[in-house]
Amino acid sequence: MRNPEQTIGNLIDKQTVAFIGSINDAGFPNLKAMLPPRKREGIKEFWFTTNTSSRRVAQYRANPKACIYFFDKRFFRGVQLLGTMTVLEDSTAKEMIWRDGDTLYYSKGVTDPDYCVLKFTAQSGRYYANFTSQDFEVP
To answer: How far is the C-alpha of 68 from the C-alpha of 46, rounded, in Å?
Structure first.
Protein backbone atom coordinates (compact mmCIF):
# COMPACT_ATOMS: atom_id res chain seq x y z
CA MET A 1 0.00 0.00 0.00
CA ARG A 2 1.76 3.13 -1.22
CA ASN A 3 -0.31 5.74 0.58
CA PRO A 4 -2.15 4.18 3.56
CA GLU A 5 -3.95 7.36 4.58
CA GLN A 6 -5.36 7.94 1.10
CA THR A 7 -6.21 4.27 0.39
CA ILE A 8 -7.84 3.71 3.77
CA GLY A 9 -9.49 7.15 3.80
CA ASN A 10 -11.13 6.46 0.45
CA LEU A 11 -12.40 3.08 1.69
CA ILE A 12 -13.83 4.67 4.86
CA ASP A 13 -15.53 7.54 3.05
CA LYS A 14 -17.50 5.17 0.81
CA GLN A 15 -19.01 3.08 3.62
CA THR A 16 -22.49 3.55 5.04
CA VAL A 17 -21.80 1.49 8.17
CA ALA A 18 -18.96 1.49 10.68
CA PHE A 19 -18.37 -1.16 13.33
CA ILE A 20 -17.08 -0.08 16.73
CA GLY A 21 -15.66 -2.39 19.35
CA SER A 22 -15.47 -2.04 23.11
CA ILE A 23 -14.60 -4.28 26.06
CA ASN A 24 -17.33 -5.31 28.48
CA ASP A 25 -16.94 -5.62 32.25
CA ALA A 26 -16.13 -9.35 31.92
CA GLY A 27 -13.28 -8.56 29.50
CA PHE A 28 -15.03 -9.75 26.33
CA PRO A 29 -15.09 -7.76 23.08
CA ASN A 30 -18.39 -6.20 21.99
CA LEU A 31 -19.07 -5.01 18.43
CA LYS A 32 -21.78 -2.68 17.24
CA ALA A 33 -22.80 -1.39 13.82
CA MET A 34 -23.00 2.40 13.72
CA LEU A 35 -23.66 5.13 11.24
CA PRO A 36 -20.37 6.22 9.67
CA PRO A 37 -18.26 8.79 11.50
CA ARG A 38 -19.54 12.34 11.28
CA LYS A 39 -16.03 13.68 10.99
CA ARG A 40 -12.55 12.29 10.56
CA GLU A 41 -9.08 13.72 10.48
CA GLY A 42 -6.96 11.47 8.30
CA ILE A 43 -7.05 7.95 9.69
CA LYS A 44 -6.10 9.16 13.19
CA GLU A 45 -9.27 10.71 14.64
CA PHE A 46 -12.95 9.87 14.13
CA TRP A 47 -16.10 11.34 15.70
CA PHE A 48 -19.39 9.44 16.11
CA THR A 49 -22.73 10.36 17.71
CA THR A 50 -24.40 8.13 20.27
CA ASN A 51 -26.66 8.07 23.31
CA THR A 52 -25.03 8.98 26.61
CA SER A 53 -27.19 6.32 28.28
CA SER A 54 -25.93 3.55 25.97
CA ARG A 55 -24.10 0.43 27.09
CA ARG A 56 -21.22 1.34 24.79
CA VAL A 57 -20.63 4.68 26.53
CA ALA A 58 -20.49 2.93 29.91
CA GLN A 59 -17.98 0.43 28.52
CA TYR A 60 -15.71 3.13 27.05
CA ARG A 61 -15.79 5.06 30.32
CA ALA A 62 -14.68 1.91 32.17
CA ASN A 63 -12.10 0.88 29.55
CA PRO A 64 -11.20 3.23 26.68
CA LYS A 65 -9.53 0.52 24.57
CA ALA A 66 -11.43 0.32 21.30
CA CYS A 67 -11.39 -0.61 17.66
CA ILE A 68 -13.28 0.51 14.58
CA TYR A 69 -13.74 -1.51 11.40
CA PHE A 70 -14.78 -0.57 7.88
CA PHE A 71 -15.60 -3.12 5.18
CA ASP A 72 -15.88 -2.65 1.43
CA LYS A 73 -18.21 -5.45 0.32
CA ARG A 74 -17.75 -4.80 -3.39
CA PHE A 75 -13.99 -5.41 -3.40
CA PHE A 76 -13.86 -7.56 -0.24
CA ARG A 77 -11.38 -5.37 1.57
CA GLY A 78 -11.41 -3.85 5.01
CA VAL A 79 -9.49 -2.00 7.67
CA GLN A 80 -9.41 -2.34 11.44
CA LEU A 81 -8.04 0.50 13.50
CA LEU A 82 -6.99 -0.01 17.14
CA GLY A 83 -6.87 2.80 19.66
CA THR A 84 -8.89 4.52 22.34
CA MET A 85 -12.39 5.97 22.54
CA THR A 86 -13.16 9.12 24.53
CA VAL A 87 -16.69 10.12 25.52
CA LEU A 88 -17.21 13.85 24.95
CA GLU A 89 -20.15 15.79 26.37
CA ASP A 90 -18.92 19.36 25.93
CA SER A 91 -20.95 21.74 23.78
CA THR A 92 -18.07 22.33 21.34
CA ALA A 93 -17.81 18.65 20.39
CA LYS A 94 -21.58 18.19 20.28
CA GLU A 95 -22.16 21.23 18.08
CA MET A 96 -19.24 20.31 15.79
CA ILE A 97 -20.92 17.15 14.52
CA TRP A 98 -24.62 17.98 15.02
CA ARG A 99 -26.74 17.72 11.85
CA ASP A 100 -30.23 18.75 10.89
CA GLY A 101 -32.45 15.77 11.54
CA ASP A 102 -30.57 14.59 14.64
CA THR A 103 -33.63 15.45 16.72
CA LEU A 104 -34.97 12.11 15.46
CA TYR A 105 -32.49 10.51 17.89
CA TYR A 106 -32.05 13.36 20.39
CA SER A 107 -35.42 15.07 20.85
CA LYS A 108 -34.08 17.91 23.01
CA GLY A 109 -31.62 19.01 20.34
CA VAL A 110 -27.89 19.57 20.59
CA THR A 111 -28.16 20.16 24.36
CA ASP A 112 -29.98 16.84 24.94
CA PRO A 113 -28.27 15.18 27.92
CA ASP A 114 -28.64 11.81 26.16
CA TYR A 115 -26.56 13.03 23.20
CA CYS A 116 -22.79 12.67 23.31
CA VAL A 117 -19.83 12.30 20.99
CA LEU A 118 -17.45 9.36 20.76
CA LYS A 119 -13.97 10.38 19.65
CA PHE A 120 -11.79 7.52 18.47
CA THR A 121 -8.02 8.02 18.27
CA ALA A 122 -6.17 5.37 16.25
CA GLN A 123 -2.74 4.00 17.16
CA SER A 124 -2.36 1.17 14.68
CA GLY A 125 -4.28 -0.78 12.09
CA ARG A 126 -4.56 -3.79 9.84
CA TYR A 127 -5.64 -3.51 6.20
CA TYR A 128 -6.91 -6.46 4.15
CA ALA A 129 -7.15 -6.51 0.34
CA ASN A 130 -6.30 -8.92 -2.47
CA PHE A 131 -5.83 -11.90 -0.11
CA THR A 132 -3.18 -10.05 1.88
CA SER A 133 -3.15 -8.33 5.26
CA GLN A 134 -0.83 -5.53 6.23
CA ASP A 135 -0.23 -4.09 9.72
CA PHE A 136 0.64 -0.41 10.05
CA GLU A 137 1.15 2.27 12.68
CA VAL A 138 -0.90 5.46 12.66
CA PRO A 139 1.35 8.47 13.24
So the answer is: 9
